[in-house]
Amino acid sequence: MILRTLVLIGALALPAVAQAAAPKPLYRDPVTDGAADVSIVFDQAHREWVMFYTNRRATMKSPDPKDVAWVHATPIGMAVSKDGLAWAYKGVAKIPAACTGQTLWAPELYAEAGVYHMWLTVVPGVFHRWGEAGATARIVHLTSKDLKAWTCGDTLDLGSDRVIDASVVKVGDRYRLWYKDEHKGSRIVAAESPDLVHWAPLGDKPVVDMGAEGPKVFRWKNAWWMVADAWKGLIVLRSDDAKTWTLQPARLLEQPGTQATDTAMGQHPDVVVSGGRAFLYYFVHQSNEPRAKTDPYYGQRTVIQVAELKEADGVLSVDREALVEQGLVAPK
Fold first, then answer.
1. Could you give the count of Cα atoms lying within 13 Å of 290 in the half-sphere of its Cβ?
2. How far apart, in whole angstroms, are the C-alpha atoms of residue 324 and residue 329?
3. Whether this model's pTM surpasses 0.85
């Protein structure tokens, strides 16, 4: 009887051990299976991490293979976690329609002085081709005290009607915003603000002379870093002042992984620096998964993965095959 009890206790303990590391996939949206473009923020009131993401309609099957309506009419999905490794779906964010629209992309979350800020890419409607007439895009600023009720702010005046994918940090006593301007060859450009409301261009040149989107800027290891999606892996740039950037030769997550659901290049990152470590969150299309061989629409599906960044001699690297354990630490 004692032996049987010990065996039972050991069996019950196994799931806890198995859940110590981040699963693959880390997270997939349970409704339309199209989670992408995540931004993660810590909810001080509930002492948990909240993931906001573009909720693509990946299960939609259009008879026209070139139809991109499935990445339009997208709400912003939400998931919560205590450690950044195990996530639970929490529905969609209550974004006011008065200042946004039908298609919502790429939320960027930032917290300061008890206020949560969101910069959201808004596309006016549903379009069926990339670059279709009328498919403009703007970035809208919203605020919240609880990450649930959001208040409309301003639409950012960035001198272009095709801007997407905000990334915001504070540098000294001012704020900087990076985003993709499709009218400038899909280059990433920057603006600066004293108050998170009024923005002015920061120079007239892109941060790097190549197309990219989904920039994420963060401070780590005594430097500023930018990771962005160049559609052939993630480019990495380093800076001492968050103005002048040096491109790292090696891209991250360019080569597909070997583990199930992580078998395509990584895209549109978020980075969370926690406990002295840096965690790279990215999405992966499911085009290389076995089910895609029989279902031509399966590649529309996207899942979220996580890997830990490493730095050596001013260079970032990542091993997507390595286990990610001991995840995010709740800030004080």
1. 3
2. 13
3. yes
